[in-house]
User: Which sequence fits this backbone?
């Protein structure tokens, strides 16, 4: 039996939204003001990719609730500062109950900061080169893929440069989050500026 298709729903203000964007005020704000909007800076892309990696295996609401603590713990996601984290910082992060305390994800976040700090604008240029402007918006959740050929290619390209913990599924979630693809439903009120 096929899963039912899920279209947009009416939010508390009477406007139609993607169904995941209602139910919790954090989801509503993130959906309405951030998700799918272009992020183009090295700093901003590092934050979003890191948060998506930490979300792997968890509900996104967990990350949204912990986001202020993540920002504090990871030097506001400044890759140059995180790149200088040492074993003392790893121990500090593993003891921080405000974040997701997963050693592999913490190690990856620090490793990735070191790669990105050395790579600089080339990191952002590579990520942004996977933008798919003009792709039609989906009509329902059923039309939204978990992985695409572009997310597989982005994941491979980042891995080739030394980025860790960013497989094709996480890469696609990142592409959605930073506006490389517009997966707001066709009748969702949010209009995203094209890259």
Assistant:
């Amino acid at each position: 039996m096929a899963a039912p298709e899920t279209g947009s729903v009416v939010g508390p203000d009477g406007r139609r939204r993607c169904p995941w964007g209602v139910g919790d005020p954090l989801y509503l704000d993130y959906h309405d003001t951030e998700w799918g909007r272009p992020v183009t800076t090295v700093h901003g892309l590092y934050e979003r990719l890191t948060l998506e990696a930490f979300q792997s295996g968890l509900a996104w609401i967990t990350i949204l609730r912990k986001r202020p603590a993540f920002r504090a713990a990871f030097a506001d996601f400044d890759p140059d500062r995180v790149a200088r984290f040492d074993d003392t910082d790893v121990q500090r992060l593993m003891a921080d109950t405000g974040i997701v305390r997963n050693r592999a994800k913490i190690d990856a976040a620090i490793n990735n900061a070191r790669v990105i700090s050395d790579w600089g604008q080339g990191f952002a240029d590579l990520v942004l080169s996977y933008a798919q402007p003009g792709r039609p918006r989906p009509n329902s959740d059923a039309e939204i893929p978990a992985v695409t050929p572009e997310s597989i290619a982005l994941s491979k390209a980042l891995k080739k440069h030394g980025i860790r913990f960013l497989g094709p599924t996480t890469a696609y979630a990142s592409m959605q989050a930073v506006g490389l693809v517009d997966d707001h439903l066709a009748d969702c009120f949010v209009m995203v500026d094209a890259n």
